[in-house]
Amino acid sequence: GNRSKLFYEQRILYTKCIAASKLFSLISEKKTNLCLAADVTNVEKLLKLANEVGPHICIFKIHADIIDDFAEKEKEELKNIAQRHNFMIMEDRKLADIGNTVQLQFNQISKWANLITVHAISGFGILEAIQNSMNFNENIGVFVIAELSSQNNLITPDYTKKTVHLAEKYPKLIAGIVCQFSSTFSNPGFIQMTPGVNIEENVTNDNLGQQYNSPETVVMDRSADIVVVGRGIINAPDPSQIALEYKKKLWNAYLKRMKK
Ligand code: BMP
Q1: For 166-193, what is each residue's pLDDT tens digit?
Q2: Which residue has its alpha carbon closest to ligand 1 atom 6?
Q3: How far is CA 34 from the centre of its chain?
Q4: Phi, psi angle pair for 194, to nearest 5°
Q5: 212, 197 in Cβ contact below 8 A?
Q6: Which of 102, 115, 148, 164 is deepest in the core (most CB within 10 A)?
Q7: pTM for the structure as a whole
């Protein structure tokens, strides 16, 4: 089947992951497929961003290990903001260790995050470990990294294929796949999350290998379901206003894709 021609609401029928079905319905309710990469180091700034940009996003994605003093109190505050503005919190931890270690890491992260990213590099053990822990917390959704946006990264087409194949074996766990292309997977129950987007004129990369495309390219040509934007929003003088602009562009690209 062609997952890119199904509406978000329709995709709910195909997923077995609770977090993914929540995500599909909140996307269609809020009419936003924008994920903010809130890559800031100051915790006050982080919470301010969550408050201001919250109405325009489906996911607030963070790297907890870059934030100064991200303690219990701040995590609670972020959870409250998420509830108020109806978005999900993703820890982009890219877990990659052996199953046992990942289980210990996951048990910490699952106390405050709704979604988490993992690399499948260490094999089935990583997903087994999360599945074991998941019995206590069924609402965490996993996104598996099948491709990276960075130039000359070491992921091969074979690795990508095997990653998707492994993900298929854990349908209750896997909310989606982080990848760049429509052809990477076909399961309509999985959500395609795609980073590397910037709408500024002439911004096609940074100087550390990141590569950028337009909202239209990733949503229409590459069938992204959720698009990750970081510096394009967080470095702007008015993040909330520019987030709204990204939101509109990304949603229009989705509507155009459905009509095409
Ligand atoms: P920016 O839009 O500022 O380039 O940020 C992109 C975000 O997406 C970063 O938080 C990065 O960790 C994440 N990311 C990425 O850029 N490429 C990938 O392939 C996978 C990612 O998670």
Answers
A1: 999 999 999 999 999 999 999 999 999 9
A2: 230
A3: 9
A4: -130, 115
A5: yes
A6: 115
A7: 0.98
